[in-house]
Amino acid sequence: MKITGLRKTLFSRATLRAVIALSVFLVLWEIGSQSKQWLGFTVPWIGQVPAPTAVLKAWVELLSDPGYWQSWYMSTLRVLAGFFAAMLIGIPLGLFMAVNRTFNGLAFPSFEILRPIPPLAWVPASIIFWPTQELSIAFVTFLGAFFTVVINVLGGAKSIDVRFFQSAQSMGSSQWDVFRRVVLPATLPSIVVGSAVGMGITWEVVVAAEMISGGGGGGGSGGGLGFFIWNSYVGGSYEQIVVGMISIGIAGFACSELLRTLGGYFTPWLKKR
Amino acid sequence: MDQLVTLLKRAMPFQMVPDDTLKAIAGLAKYESHAQGDVIYHIGDYADDIYIVSSGSVQHTLGIGTQATHLDKTMRSGDVFGWAAVLENQRSRLAKTVCLERTELIRINGEDLINLFKASPALGDVVMSRFATMINKEFTLPEAVAAQVPHFTQAQATMATMATGLTLTMFRVSQWLKSPKPYLMLIGFSILLGIWYFTVEVWKLPRFEDMPGLTVVVKELFSKDPTYGLSLYTPEYYQHVWVSLRRIGIAFFLATILGVPLGLFLGWSKTFREYVFPVFETLRPIPILAWVPLAILMFSGSETPVIYLTFLASFFATALNTMLGVETIDESYSRAASCLGASKWQTFREVIVPGAMPFIFTGLQISIGVAWFSLVAGEMVSGQFGLGYVINTSYTMVRYPTIVIGMVTLGAVGYTTSAMVRMAGDYMMQWRVRELALGGR
């Protein structure tokens, strides 16, 4: 049963069309990149981009390079550090702001004036402040996810129907019961969405932070994927830039998907629809 | 007199009336007091005056024939009853009222009140519509009864709504000032600034003392002769802001005119989506900032790469949200349109585009946010001028206070642009704003 389902999705018209579209895209890209040799003139813009075959070759070579995997490791570590810090601080803060009106009045306006400042604008200030490069990159990644997580949690908690509280209280629930049985399950979906979006932003930010701050720890291998890209650009190995871009794309996508699956596991009641 | 005015101000129908008119109304009012058990009027009595409770309480029992959901209501200080006196076609009492304790009332003749408002019809309509709301909502009577309040203006209806709009805003502002919110906000801001000031400049905590302090930044920002060359008084400041705004403007415009149609078609045509969406989804997870070196390679000069990066970020957000918007449209709308003989193009124009509009504007708001995000990154890494550039060069040239000036400016400008997008959206989708307002959100 399951196998036929799999076969159905594998050989469906949609898959076929996706494969066609992607192949056309790759072929056009190849032609565009090789236009100087093949057609005798350079196609604007795409002409400067390394061809997919060259990228693939560079990638295969890099697969056995420990420096490349070290970059993966460094970036993932930073993302996880920033992300978990944002979850640890952001979720309780958002919930507390939603529950306590005085605290909300006190903190929310300040939060709102800090929020429009793009996380990357914090990079120099954070480099000045934190003693090590590593911490300053983690801090900027933290900021990237933090605001999204808080806003999502707050929004989720605010949209709970008042009647749920009233009925829980009239049936004799304690404060903790209301929190545990009403607030938490009602905000879980928005926590999941917030963290998946936050994860995406974290990957965006980590790349930029690594580029701007020069990778941290100095030298090629300690740098992370953002630094890997920048280094490839400076060093003139343009194929590696594209390899780096794709790698980050995969990493970010995988992390967000993982979170969504995990979130789906925690919020099984949403799946029924 | 002042006491009367304050009492009137608490009465629901008069809450938005300016003080001088309230004084005129107070001039019509008569005080009276009743002992416990006094009946003020019976059902069917001739309705001449309206009453406002000053102190004490009154039991207000509507007649069965009035079709009210709740017949009984206890009137307390500030509550208004006897409103049959201002209804047209209805000059007899609908309820029986009995004082529950020693009660002080003021009474105002209904005819006199209506005559008073004839001088200022716009205000009169506001008061009367509040009467109608009160009758309908607080006394739970059918709207047909509430609709009997007099109308003063027909020709000047727009004037009245304008006045309502203005008084409504004024009313909201005054309510806001009465709530604890603004004061908590100020306390919150002072805590934030206080932490900054004390940690950096007074206690000089380790690590914090390297940061630019609050007073230094403020002094620099408002100085006519800034130490580090950038303040509100230098033309360079506005030049940087302008350059950033221009880049955002171009990128956002391009992203909107390309992204919205793409999103609409992606959502509308299944074939188109099956071909294009996979490519779109392959490119989208790549962080915009990873494009930086490639953008520099692809486009010559320093201006186009930055605009390209900003465009790319906006473009994905806009197209994706538009597509989601089209997908959420209930399919029965399209079917209904087809049944009524709409062509494909007509369905697209009349159903798909307006249906996706709320999502498009959500997308545009996200898009302007990510546009600033990637603009800063682009400007920091490559490019000349612009706020991101200011922040980065200030760091490398050790002009620390200027970093904060750049950040604050970015926040302010970014906030303003997204507020503008939101206002444009509200303006274009007034039907939705109304819908949300009716839903009480």
What does this structure look like?
The complex is a heterodimer of chains A (273) and B (441). Helices cover 79% and strands 0% of the residues of chain A. Chain A has twelve helices and no strands. Chain A is mainly alpha-helical and 273 residues long. Chain A is globular, with a radius of gyration of 23 Å. Chain A has two domains: 1-49; 50-272, MetI-like fold (Orthogonal Bundle), CATH 1.10.3720.10. Chain B is of the alpha+beta class and 441 residues long. Chain B contains 17 helices and eight strands. Chain B has helices spanning 2-10, 19-28, 110-118, 121-137, 143-146, 157-178, 181-202, 214-221, 235-268, 270-283, 292-298, 303-328, 331-339, 344-381, 387-396, 400-428, 430-438, and strands at 30-34, 39-41, 49-55, 58-62, 72-75, 80-81, 95-99, 103-109. Chain B has a four-stranded antiparallel sheet. The longest helix of chain B is centred in the last third of the chain and has 38 residues, at 344-381.
